[in-house]
Amino acid sequence: MASGSRAILPQSKEALLKSYNARLKDDVRSMLENFEEILKLARRESHSQISKITQCEQDALEMQVRAANMVRAGESLMKLVADLKQYLILNDFHSVNEAITNNSQLFRATQIECDKKLMKLRDEMAMDLYDLEEEYYTSIFK
What we know:
Blueprint: H1 11-43, H2 52-91, H3 93-138
Helix pairs in contact: 1-2
Keywords: Nucleus, Transcription, Transcription regulation
Family: Belongs to the Mediator complex subunit 22 family.
InterPro entries: Med22
């Protein structure tokens, strides 16, 4: 939505949208940090006093934990998308109301047009019936 045409939301909805935004930022930050740490672990050359095998095992375990954190953040993002869809479905009454109003106006205009045509047809039929009745009563062929 453009900032100029942004509707004023009730405080509860505004707070909900802010929480969605915070969740999004937290999950993306978590995924990025964990990915960067996995890359650092993969490139690290150990200069510590721990044996290379022990260091490799420790790095592998840390990578698994960080990968699990990334999966958790990804699942949280999918849940956030579902929550946002539900929010839109439940709170997009403005566009629904607008569509109903537009359809109502269209149907009202169509109804008025049909009413006018029916009234014109009624008037024409009344005139024709009046003429026929007059012709019948004034006719010599009764």
